[in-house]
From TrEMBL:
Pfam families: Spore_permease (PF03845). The lineage of its organism: Bacteria, Bacillati, Bacillota, Bacilli, Bacillales. Its main location: membrane. It comes from Paenibacillus vulneris. This is Endospore germination permease. Keywords: Germination, Membrane, Transmembrane, Transmembrane helix, Transport.
Length: 371
């Protein structure tokens, strides 16, 4: 039996909960490092660059509504070049999954469970993700829908409450001191949106694939708007120079925020609870994308075979960075290089598909597709 059950709203929530993840903690630091007070502007430009990649993958998905990028790329560029491209996608998201798990572990053992071995926290989160990926696309969407309000509402509340401590003078000059290094900051911020590549496996399960662009647009507006607000609030409270000295500026922002009437004097504990949920949804999506792409590459109908098979390799990759500083250096470098996979490769596929007039089978509103 075939199903196409993902709605436009569900696709939006999947994208938002995938994008909002572990990178929310160091985001202001990444943006402010080279841009200074222009960090909100850099975040906006990074968001626009990220939307370029999401737009490309969505256009391709609408053009080939029954298939993921691994499945339709051979029809566009040939079997062997497509296999190389698919392996790059799989390898990139496997590395991205491992780095997400490692960053989660570093934050947990630093801020919460200080006596817990790093390997334990990383392995537990990876196991949780591996078990969760043994589901179909419908359950995958339900999980994201369930956690979506738990992610968005608390973060917006914390940011809104923190604005009472902000000083607009810290955000001036708005344009900062532009230099060539700011480009690298834009790329780093754009890399935080790379989880939106999950759209390639969401579109084949949507009831109305032609509405996928609306989902993409709403998702980038919500997640991008949230990221810009977080960066602006952090810079407004701490200032650009002090933010550069903070490893996790967003967590420090939560520490300085309190509920009215001092019901809670610090919101960092509540924020970390929300952040753990955000990490899980992001890790869940990147792991799911990795194993689904593997199953598509080998022409398998079921991806469960790879749920635990990939786990040891991802765990080993997560343990390779020697310390937290090296980890963040690797994260930034991998994220920038990954833009070629998530933006340049889909762009190349779209151009060739248009030139060669390649399209997938069109689906009607009531058509079905196996998730």
């Amino acid at each position: 039996m075939f199903y196409r059950q993902i709605t436009k709203i569900q696709a939006t929530t999947i994208l938002v909960s995938t994008i909002i993840g572990v990178g929310i903690l160091p985001l202001p630091l990444f943006a402010v490092r080279e841009a200074g007070s222009a960090a909100p502007l850099v975040t906006l430009l990074g968001t626009l660059l990220a939307f370029t990649g999401l737009w490309l993958i969505t256009i391709l998905g609408i053009r080939f509504p029954n298939q993921s990028i691994v499945e339709y790329s051979p029809a566009i560029i040939g079997k062997w070049p497509a296999a190389v491209g698919s392996l790059l996608i799989i390898g990139f998201f496997a590395v991205l999954t491992s780095l997400t798990a490692r960053e989660f572990g570093e934050v947990v053992i630093t801020a919460v469970l200080k006596r817990t071995p790093l390997e334990v926290t990383v392995l537990v989160m990876l196991l949780l993700s591996a078990v969760s990926t043994r589901q179909d696309m419908r359950t995958f969407a339900y999980i994201h829908n369930f956690y979506f309000p738990m992610l968005l509402v608390p973060v917006l509340l914390i940011v809104a409450l923190s604005l009472k401590n902000a000083d607009t003078i810290n955000l001036q000059p708005v344009y900062g001191n532009f230099s060539g290094k700011i480009i690298s900051s834009i790329f780093t911020v754009a890399a935080l949106f790379q989880g939106s590549f999950i759209m390639t496996i969401v579109i084949p399960s949507m009831r109305q694939a032609h509405l996928a662009m609306k989902s993409s647009l709403w998702a980038i507006l919500i997640s991008g708007g949230l990221y810009i607000t977080i960066v602006a609030a952090t810079i407004g409270v701490f200032g650009a120079e002090e933010t550069k000295l903070l490893l996790w500026p967003t967590l420090e922002l939560a520490k300085t925020t309190s509920l009215p009437a001092n019901i809670l004097e610090r919101l960092d504990a509540a924020f970390l609870g929300v952040w753990v949920t955000a990490v899980f949804t992001t890790l869940f999506s990147s792991y799911y994308l990795t194993i689904r792409s593997l199953s598509n590459l080998f022409g398998l109908r079921n991806h469960n075979l790879f749920s635990y098979f990939v786990l040891p390799f991802v765990f080993i990759l997560a343990m390779l960075p020697e310390n937290i500083l090296q980890m963040y250096e690797i994260i930034q470098n991998v994220g920038r290089v990954g833009l070629f996979v998530t933006i340049a490769y889909p762009g190349l596929l779209l151009i060739i598909a248009i030139l060669r007039k390649k399209r997938g089978d069109q689906v009607g509103q009531g058509a079905d597709k196996n998730p």
